[in-house]
Amino acid sequence: MTSLFLLQLLNGVQFGILLFLIAAGLTLVFGIMDFVNLAHGVIYMVGAYLAVSFTQMTGSYGLGLLLTLPATLLIGLVLELLVFRRLYDRPHLDQVLATFGLVMIVTEGVQIIWGAAPLSVAMPEALSGSIPLIGQMRYPVFRLVVIGAGLATALGLYLIIGHTRIGMRLRAGATSRAMVSALGVDIHKLFTVIFAFGAMLAGFAGAMVAPILTVDPGMGEQVLILAFVVIVIGGIGSVRGAFAGALLVGIVDTMGRSFGPILLRLVMEPAAAGQAGRVLAPMLVYILMAAILAARPTGLFGQKT
């Protein structure tokens, strides 16, 4: 049981790290720009597909990953300049409808280019092994690399946002966008940087998950709702909150799916416990969100406005 708990805990942390890479850019866009971007999930999906194509072209997953980062950065720039910039001053409903339409367009484009069948990326040979945990239990090296890459990204974001000039502008923009603009900061350029950087982080998450999960046209929609849950739990506009919220959501979701049926067997018949566990497990993250918002309406690290 100890080995299983440790295994699922690491799986939860790894899932949380991937959610953080997606939610970090989303919380900056939502918190600073007050922009509801439902298309953020499809950039994650496109990043995974680009990683598949670049890996096949170069024969190396590492090179494919490196090529995916500037490609998704460029996609973010193009979308911001052609689509999102025209929606900044529009009501949230207009933003939701426009970005939802973009989701449908990009998803259809992906199916035209890559097809509807799931794709996969071969695990890098150097990272295809596993290390022992406790007893006979082992854990894949690649998943540990994903955790390490996510932690390094979180540290980099902390240093950029907390100790650089662009980070100072981001923090100021999260507090008062109008004041930053009045002080002479080119707010449109700042928005462009945020969108492009957020798109690159989402593409990075897609490329990292490609060797673990199958790549399919619906994968972006599956994580977008959880990414919104993460930024609401952590506090809109807070990268630190996105990191804490992502870890909480990842661990609670993974542990609930693994141990929920086991715990329910203590008070229910095994068949009923299994069925109830499958039904209740997906609800746990939303129960967690409701409990946190009841105690802290602005989220764990959100600021009152």
From TrEMBL:
<feature type="transmembrane region" description="Helical">
    <location>
        <begin position="96"/>
        <end position="121"/>
    </location>
</feature>
<feature type="transmembrane region" description="Helical">
    <location>
        <begin position="225"/>
        <end position="255"/>
    </location>
</feature>
<keyword id="KW-1003">Cell membrane</keyword>
<dbReference type="GO" id="GO:0005886">
    <property type="term" value="C:plasma membrane"/>
</dbReference>
<dbReference type="GO" id="GO:0022857">
    <property type="term" value="F:transmembrane transporter activity"/>
</dbReference>
<feature type="transmembrane region" description="Helical">
    <location>
        <begin position="38"/>
        <end position="57"/>
    </location>
</feature>
<keyword id="KW-0029">Amino-acid transport</keyword>
<keyword id="KW-0813">Transport</keyword>
<dbReference type="InterPro" id="IPR001851">
    <property type="entry name" value="ABC_transp_permease"/>
</dbReference>
<dbReference type="GO" id="GO:0006865">
    <property type="term" value="P:amino acid transport"/>
</dbReference>
<keyword id="KW-0472">Membrane</keyword>
<feature type="transmembrane region" description="Helical">
    <location>
        <begin position="190"/>
        <end position="213"/>
    </location>
</feature>
<feature type="transmembrane region" description="Helical">
    <location>
        <begin position="12"/>
        <end position="31"/>
    </location>
</feature>
<feature type="transmembrane region" description="Helical">
    <location>
        <begin position="63"/>
        <end position="84"/>
    </location>
</feature>
<keyword id="KW-1133">Transmembrane helix</keyword>
<dbReference type="InterPro" id="IPR052157">
    <property type="entry name" value="BCAA_transport_permease"/>
</dbReference>
<comment type="similarity">
    <text>Belongs to the binding-protein-dependent transport system permease family. LivHM subfamily.</text>
</comment>
<feature type="transmembrane region" description="Helical">
    <location>
        <begin position="276"/>
        <end position="295"/>
    </location>
</feature>
<feature type="transmembrane region" description="Helical">
    <location>
        <begin position="141"/>
        <end position="161"/>
    </location>
</feature>
<dbReference type="Pfam" id="PF02653">
    <property type="entry name" value="BPD_transp_2"/>
</dbReference>
<protein>
    <submittedName>
        <fullName>Branched-chain amino acid ABC transporter permease</fullName>
    </submittedName>
</protein>
<keyword id="KW-0812">Transmembrane</keyword>
